[in-house]
Amino acid sequence: MLYPTIDDLTPLLLIFQAMWCMGASIPVPTMENSKTTEQHFAQESCSFLQESSQEECPSFWAQGQPPVILISLDGFRAEYLSRFALENTEHRGEFAATTIRCLAERGVSSPYMMPSYPTITFPNHYAIVTGLYPESHGIIGNQFYDPDLRATFSIYTDGTDPKWWQNGEPIWTTVRRQGKVSATYFWPGSDVKFAEEEQRSPNYFFRYNKTTSFRQRVDQVLEWMDLPADKRPALTTLYFEEPDSTGHKAGPNTANVTEKVTVVDRQIRRLIDGLIARNIANCVNIIVVSDHGMADSPPGKQLVDLEKYVPDIQQSALTFLGPVTSIRPLNETQEEENRIGDALSCKDPRMRVFNKWELPYRMHSVRSRRIPNLMLDMDLSWRAVIKQEAWSGGGAHGWDNVYLDMQAIFIAHGPSFKNQEVVRPFENIQLYNLICHLVNVTPAENNGTWGALHHLLSDPPNLLVDADQEFPDMPQILRKLADTREEKYKPSACAYVNHKETEKTSPAMEIEMKMTEERENELFIAHAPLGIPIVIPTEPSPSNLFNDPNHVLLVNEDYLTGFDVELGIPLWTAYTISGNTTNNINDGHWIEDPRLDQNHTGSCQRLSNIVRRNEVAYTHLFPKEFATQKVDAWLDTNLLEVPSSISHFLETMTDMLAEASISRGPLNVISGPTRHRPASIFYVVTACKVDVTVGEWNHTTCPAEYRDLQAFLLPIGGWKYQGACTSDRNFIAYNVASLKDVEQVTGFQFFPDLPLEDKLSLLARTTLDSALVLDPTRY
């Protein structure tokens, strides 16, 4: 298996500990001690759950579906699960989170769950219950300014004002609107009252009060479980401020935090014991999550003072400072944005300055007007400040969600979940659809993928394809060569892009281009082993290529191309390379593709009608470095113009693909331009991990768990403020993407020949899942 069972998880947890637990107050056990503790833990500590699983549900619980209790442990980073309980700063030989680990041992868990960006409390709690990224649900931070409302949101003063919570439908609303009962004991957004629609609030909820004891919260949840079926919540949420509060004060790598881990773990044990006493412990689905992790952030250290570079920043801009910093110039002109952005750009290697449209797509930080145009991304543990800050804590969060310290937890236990299963990490926006399935309600529109987490279930539903769904036809394959015999030396449109005054075509290449249908089929298997990209209409769809007669298919020895013969633009290219594919066929000149007729527009013809600009470079979508034929790579159907300033990024990407094909075996690559803002070049790269016990698989036969995938969305415009001080490889790593993101911006669905379950597995993977081409953490 790609991911171990919980019994084999100790080495992984030790790795987490070695990476994160650098403080002397948290002793790291030896492997021998850890293994002994793990065995004792598995055999003895979880016996209470084993006994409860044998209980039968009482008669009044036998009807309907098991209710869901969703528990949030604020700021509980994934590494905390490996810590040992402390007594006088010495570990007691048992884990600090014994109960939570038992739920994982007897249920489903993940090494971590990826939070949404920014890794902040309110945005992520609302992402979990709506299935929406913060840019979509609107709660983009704990504090932010809304230019339409002309007001500033703060969790301390505006957390229950409905004007801030108009976007998205939280799960408690979905449940109540569909005739079921929902309850919350604290959750951001749950105590907002909408005067015009009572059903937007849970049936039962409490106004947030931090002083309410954890015990009181747990006991209230148990009382809700005692209600008759028509009043009992189908969904209950339960929230604890710890270990986040202590993590902020003392820092994550302290005994203080470890003790709070034990505190919240005991409260979950209290809940489980209460369910056991009612004989319903195996009649309830329990999901334990956190919103984000925590990193060291000591006061007065690792700071970047913005006033050092923009002396008037307090007077000229509205700023929200910290691990993630936003800057909204009071004078919202392009000139003022450029003044501030240029003043901050490349000034400190621990800080990156972006126009929000240049932020990686994976951050999903564009679509809300509440997100200002200037954003600062800081290295882990570094914060932006103005002058001397009042910060006195030891830990913080909010940084890029690719940092391991920012990762959250996911554990699920109950009759609907598998037993002793460790699954791949996934994004927290996927939880909403899962919970909707568990409580049998229809989800509202969200950013998750229906069915992406069904593999967690003991009895997953059938994922049936809609019988009325329309599928596109196969694009026409252009085989007929344009007749050049009558004008075999006609002027070539490619003279322009070859920087020549005139140029003649040559019919000699026609002989090289011809191939049999049998050879075509072989090349389809070689270059598109899981099918070519297809377009399934969605609302809204960035593409109009569905059954578009202008979308044609070109089959070459080295690659396949989807081409738009009306626009004269390659849409995608697909090819497979192995370690011996690099060659010396670099010299050449662009050639009109002879398969295009006089009614078609090729890239050379299109570009000949455009005024040549020095800042534009002509590049090969299928890299010429991988060509085995003299002609293939130089066909103008493989030509793409890009700004000269980013052509070196694409060259570096080609080098990295070549390196990966040597170290990882054959790679299948699908790449092309996107049509969204900002325009990008996408790459979807796959390989099959080798299992020495069974030999090598190919791209077609590779089992789902061994299929490796890494994707990228490289912005064609580069970076306005950071381009001069970012290495090519860091630029590429920063713009790693998920397959789900690439499908969203291109309108394509990749790998149509895969079984649906296998495709869902790929769509659910996070940007941290693979290091096929490079390590996405990049730091």
Automatic annotation (TrEMBL):
Keywords: Glycoprotein, Hydrolase, Signal. Residues 556-757 form the ENPP1-3/EXOG-like endonuclease/phosphodiesterase domain. It comes from the Eukaryota. GO terms for cellular component: I band; sarcoplasmic reticulum; striated muscle dense body. It holds the Pfam family Phosphodiest. InterPro entries: Alkaline_phosphatase_core_sf, DNA/RNA_non-sp_Endonuclease_sf, ENPP1-3/EXOG-like_nuc-like, His-Me_finger_sf, Phosphodiest/P_Trfase. Residues 1-23 form the signal peptide. GO terms for molecular function: hydrolase activity; metal ion binding; nucleic acid binding. This is Ectonucleotide pyrophosphatase/phosphodiesterase family member. It comes from Daphnia magna.
